[in-house]
Specification:
The protein is mostly helical. It is built from seven helices and seven strands. The chain binds zinc ion (2 copies). The site of one zinc ion has 9 residues, from helix 4.
């Protein structure tokens, strides 16, 4: 089944909210446009100094290759899979993951944090449908409150005005 909608990467990186054909990432299961549907490593800020410490040429090559990719989306689950594949030393792995999480927490938009709480070592990803459901709930509550306000204001104002006038009259 082909689905259409906005691509989060297009939205965040190019401020492009237009509807596109969406494809699911097999790692994080989020959906993106064709240009962004393939995963890439998440950006790790102090990667240069970490690599220097480790003297790992293989790791350096992987990072350089991944960072030169233009499209795709930074994918946490894919990054973890690469680290697993490389059989990194535990200490190194922890350092890279910590840097990646710090970076994500610092740069992700607030609503993304709200939708996808990141717990160290246990990454929860909401499916597209549950994201949609929670957005729907927020909309229903907002519209409900607005309607309630619209109904209550004309109901109370005519009743309040005579009382207000009485009150002023007493004064
Ligand atoms: Zn896109
Ligand atoms: Zn992904």
């Amino acid at each position: 089944m082909i689905c259409y909608g906005e691509c989060v990467e297009c939205l965040v990186r190019h401020k492009d909210p237009s509807e596109k054909e969406l494809h699911q990432c097999s790692y994080c299961e989020r959906t993106f446009c064709l240009e962004h549907s393939e995963p890439k490593l998440v950006h790790i800020p102090n990667f240069d100094s970490i690599i220097k410490d480790s003297e790992s040429k293989a790791l350096e090559m992987i990072f350089k290759r991944e960072y030169s990719i233009e499209g795709n989306h930074p994918c946490f689950q894919y990054t973890m899979a690469i680290f697993d594949e490389m059989k990194l030393q535990e200490q190194m792995r922890e350092r890279l993951i910590k840097e990646a999480i710090d970076r994500m927490m610092a740069t992700e938009p607030w609503w993304k944090k709200f939708q996808e709480p990141l717990k160290p070592m246990k990454i929860q990803t909401l499916t597209k449908s549950s994201q949609k459901r929670s957005m729907k709930k927020i909309w229903i509550v907002t519209i409900g409150l607005l309607l309630l306000g619209l109904i209550l204001i004309p109901y109370f104002i005519p009743r309040l005005i005579p009382q207000l006038l009485d009150f002023l009259g007493i004064l």
